[in-house]
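Task card 7
Instruction: Convert sequence to C-alpha cells.
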Amino acid sequence: MFPRRILYAADGSTASDRARERVVDLVRGRSSVPDLPPCEVHLVYVEAVSAWTYSATLNPGQRQRLREEGQVVLDEQIARITAAGVAPAASHLALGRAVDEILRLRDQIEADLIVMGSRGLNAFSRVLLGSDAEGVVRHAPCSVLVVREDA
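Output:
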C-alpha cells in the first residue's frame, strides 16, 4: 500500500539527498496507480539545539538567528524537491532535538511514512552522539524509511 502522507526530514547531507530521491520515487509511483489520490509530502528541517540546551532558554536574538539559519537550509531543500517534480504540501522549520521535533510533527500531520537519511555513524559515535534515525525508528508509530548515505 502506498503512503498517502509522507514526512520527509531533510538535513542537507548526502544521505538526506538520497532520501529525497526516494520520496520522489514514491510520489511518482503513487501517481502512476489509477484511482489513488495524490500523495501529500511534508518537508521538515530541524535546526538542532544542543542536547544540553533547552530551546526555551534561548534569548530572542539567539532564537531569531537560529530560525534565519534554518530557513536558508529549508528553502534550499524546498527548491531541490520542487525541482525534482514534487511540490511539498507544507514545509516546517523546527528548533530543538531532531528526533523530538520529527516525531511531534509526525503526530500533528498524521504522516504514515517518515523518510530520512542516515549518515551511518559507527557504534562508538552512536553511543556518544545518539542517532536521529535510530531514535525515530525506535519511537515512531508509523513506518520509517531510512536511506543510507552510501546506498
